[in-house]
Amino acid sequence: MLNTGDRAPAFSAPDQDGTTRTLADYRGRRLVLYFYPKDMTEGCTAEACSFRDNLNRIAGHGAEVLGVSPDSVARHRKFITKESLNFPLLSDPDHAIAEAYGVWTEKSMYGRTYMGVERTTFIIDEKGRIATIFHKVKVKGHVDEVLNALAD
Protein backbone atom coordinates (compact mmCIF):
# COMPACT_ATOMS: atom_id res chain seq x y z
CA MET A 1 0.00 0.00 0.00
CA LEU A 2 1.40 3.37 -1.02
CA ASN A 3 1.38 6.34 1.34
CA THR A 4 1.87 10.06 0.95
CA GLY A 5 5.57 10.87 0.81
CA ASP A 6 6.42 7.60 -0.94
CA ARG A 7 8.22 7.65 -4.27
CA ALA A 8 5.62 7.09 -6.99
CA PRO A 9 6.17 3.79 -8.81
CA ALA A 10 7.71 4.25 -12.26
CA PHE A 11 5.51 3.34 -15.20
CA SER A 12 5.72 3.06 -18.96
CA ALA A 13 2.63 2.51 -21.11
CA PRO A 14 1.08 3.54 -24.41
CA ASP A 15 -1.46 6.33 -24.58
CA GLN A 16 -4.43 6.53 -26.97
CA ASP A 17 -2.08 7.32 -29.88
CA GLY A 18 0.36 4.51 -29.07
CA THR A 19 2.93 6.98 -27.71
CA THR A 20 4.79 5.55 -24.71
CA ARG A 21 4.47 7.73 -21.64
CA THR A 22 6.50 7.34 -18.46
CA LEU A 23 6.45 8.88 -15.01
CA ALA A 24 9.83 10.46 -15.83
CA ASP A 25 8.12 12.47 -18.60
CA TYR A 26 6.39 14.48 -15.86
CA ARG A 27 9.45 15.20 -13.71
CA GLY A 28 9.45 18.84 -12.60
CA ARG A 29 5.66 19.07 -12.92
CA ARG A 30 2.80 17.90 -10.76
CA LEU A 31 0.76 15.01 -12.09
CA VAL A 32 -2.82 14.03 -11.34
CA LEU A 33 -2.75 10.29 -12.05
CA TYR A 34 -6.21 8.80 -11.88
CA PHE A 35 -7.20 5.17 -12.22
CA TYR A 36 -10.67 4.22 -13.41
CA PRO A 37 -12.34 0.91 -14.32
CA LYS A 38 -13.62 1.20 -17.91
CA ASP A 39 -14.00 3.61 -20.81
CA MET A 40 -17.49 4.66 -21.90
CA THR A 41 -19.30 3.63 -18.73
CA GLU A 42 -21.46 6.08 -16.81
CA GLY A 43 -19.22 6.82 -13.82
CA CYS A 44 -15.97 6.75 -15.77
CA THR A 45 -17.37 9.06 -18.44
CA ALA A 46 -18.60 11.52 -15.80
CA GLU A 47 -15.18 11.49 -14.12
CA ALA A 48 -13.26 11.96 -17.38
CA CYS A 49 -15.56 14.80 -18.50
CA SER A 50 -15.13 16.51 -15.14
CA PHE A 51 -11.34 16.41 -15.56
CA ARG A 52 -11.80 17.63 -19.16
CA ASP A 53 -13.97 20.55 -18.09
CA ASN A 54 -11.55 21.60 -15.34
CA LEU A 55 -8.24 20.97 -17.10
CA ASN A 56 -7.38 24.68 -17.33
CA ARG A 57 -7.98 25.11 -13.59
CA ILE A 58 -5.76 22.09 -12.88
CA ALA A 59 -3.07 23.43 -15.23
CA GLY A 60 -3.30 26.72 -13.36
CA HIS A 61 -1.90 24.85 -10.35
CA GLY A 62 1.01 23.55 -12.42
CA ALA A 63 -0.43 20.05 -12.84
CA GLU A 64 -1.23 17.74 -15.72
CA VAL A 65 -3.81 14.93 -15.84
CA LEU A 66 -3.25 11.36 -16.93
CA GLY A 67 -5.93 8.64 -16.80
CA VAL A 68 -5.18 4.90 -16.56
CA SER A 69 -7.46 1.93 -17.17
CA PRO A 70 -7.13 -1.63 -18.49
CA ASP A 71 -8.78 -0.62 -21.78
CA SER A 72 -6.92 -0.92 -25.10
CA VAL A 73 -5.23 1.90 -26.99
CA ALA A 74 -8.00 1.72 -29.63
CA ARG A 75 -10.77 1.92 -27.04
CA HIS A 76 -9.05 4.91 -25.38
CA ARG A 77 -8.83 6.62 -28.77
CA LYS A 78 -12.57 6.05 -29.32
CA PHE A 79 -13.39 7.31 -25.79
CA ILE A 80 -11.28 10.46 -26.24
CA THR A 81 -12.90 11.21 -29.59
CA LYS A 82 -16.44 10.55 -28.34
CA GLU A 83 -16.07 12.73 -25.22
CA SER A 84 -13.59 15.32 -26.62
CA LEU A 85 -11.13 14.55 -23.84
CA ASN A 86 -8.12 16.88 -23.70
CA PHE A 87 -5.63 14.75 -21.76
CA PRO A 88 -3.94 11.38 -22.35
CA LEU A 89 -5.24 7.98 -21.28
CA LEU A 90 -2.82 5.10 -20.66
CA SER A 91 -3.60 1.53 -21.62
CA ASP A 92 -2.78 -0.92 -18.80
CA PRO A 93 -4.26 -4.24 -20.03
CA ASP A 94 -1.96 -6.41 -17.90
CA HIS A 95 -2.73 -4.27 -14.80
CA ALA A 96 0.99 -3.68 -14.16
CA ILE A 97 0.55 0.01 -13.33
CA ALA A 98 -2.63 -0.60 -11.34
CA GLU A 99 -0.88 -3.33 -9.34
CA ALA A 100 2.18 -1.14 -8.71
CA TYR A 101 -0.11 1.58 -7.32
CA GLY A 102 -2.17 -0.91 -5.29
CA VAL A 103 -5.47 -0.22 -7.07
CA TRP A 104 -5.98 -3.64 -8.72
CA THR A 105 -8.20 -5.13 -6.04
CA GLU A 106 -10.87 -7.68 -5.36
CA LYS A 107 -14.30 -6.18 -5.92
CA SER A 108 -17.79 -7.50 -5.38
CA MET A 109 -21.03 -6.96 -7.30
CA TYR A 110 -24.29 -8.86 -6.90
CA GLY A 111 -22.54 -11.39 -4.67
CA ARG A 112 -19.86 -12.13 -7.27
CA THR A 113 -16.22 -11.30 -6.56
CA TYR A 114 -13.77 -10.36 -9.28
CA MET A 115 -10.56 -8.38 -9.76
CA GLY A 116 -10.77 -4.82 -11.01
CA VAL A 117 -9.58 -1.23 -10.69
CA GLU A 118 -10.54 0.61 -7.54
CA ARG A 119 -11.23 4.20 -8.60
CA THR A 120 -8.25 6.05 -7.08
CA THR A 121 -6.43 9.33 -7.76
CA PHE A 122 -2.82 10.18 -6.91
CA ILE A 123 -1.28 13.64 -6.97
CA ILE A 124 2.42 13.24 -7.64
CA ASP A 125 4.72 16.17 -6.89
CA GLU A 126 7.48 17.63 -9.04
CA LYS A 127 10.06 15.28 -7.50
CA GLY A 128 8.07 12.11 -8.20
CA ARG A 129 6.70 11.66 -4.68
CA ILE A 130 3.08 11.01 -3.81
CA ALA A 131 1.62 14.19 -2.34
CA THR A 132 -2.04 13.11 -1.99
CA ILE A 133 -4.06 9.91 -2.42
CA PHE A 134 -7.82 9.74 -2.92
CA HIS A 135 -9.03 6.17 -2.29
CA LYS A 136 -12.41 4.79 -3.39
CA VAL A 137 -13.23 7.98 -5.27
CA LYS A 138 -16.83 9.13 -5.56
CA VAL A 139 -17.08 10.83 -8.95
CA LYS A 140 -19.39 13.69 -7.95
CA GLY A 141 -17.27 16.51 -6.53
CA HIS A 142 -13.99 14.64 -6.94
CA VAL A 143 -12.30 17.16 -9.24
CA ASP A 144 -13.07 19.88 -6.69
CA GLU A 145 -11.25 17.75 -4.08
CA VAL A 146 -8.30 17.47 -6.44
CA LEU A 147 -8.28 21.23 -7.06
CA ASN A 148 -8.37 21.91 -3.30
CA ALA A 149 -5.43 19.56 -2.76
CA LEU A 150 -3.47 21.23 -5.57
CA ALA A 151 -4.14 24.66 -4.03
CA ASP A 152 -2.68 23.62 -0.65
Characterise this structure.
It is a single chain. With 152 residues, the protein is of the alpha/beta class. It has a single domain, classed as Glutaredoxin, CATH 3.40.30.10. It is 28% helix and 29% strand. The radius of gyration is 14 Å and the shape is globular. The mean pLDDT is 96.
How many H/I helices?
5
Helix content: 25-40%
CATH superfamily grouping: Glutaredoxin
Would you identify the CATH architecture?
Answer: 3-Layer(aba) Sandwich
Q: Strands across the major sheet, in which order?
A: 5-4-3-8-9
Order of helices and strands: EEEHHEHEHEEEEH
Low-confidence segments: none
The level-1 CATH class? Alpha Beta
Number of strands: 9
General shape: globular
| Total domain modules | 1
- Strand content bin: 25-35%
Notable traits:
Glutaredoxin; alpha/beta; two-stranded antiparallel sheet; 9 strands; five-stranded mixed sheet; 152 residues; globular
SSE topology:
Blueprint: E1 12-14, E2 20-22, E3 30-35, H1 42-53, H2 55-59, E4 63-69, H3 73-83, E5 89-91, H4 96-100, E6 104-109, E7 112-117, E8 120-124, E9 130-134, H5 142-151
Parallel strand pairs: 3-4, 4-5
Antiparallel strand pairs: 1-2, 3-8, 6-7, 8-9
Short synopsis of the structure:
With about 150 residues, the chain is of the alpha/beta class. It has five helices and nine strands; from the N terminus they run βββααβαβαββββα.
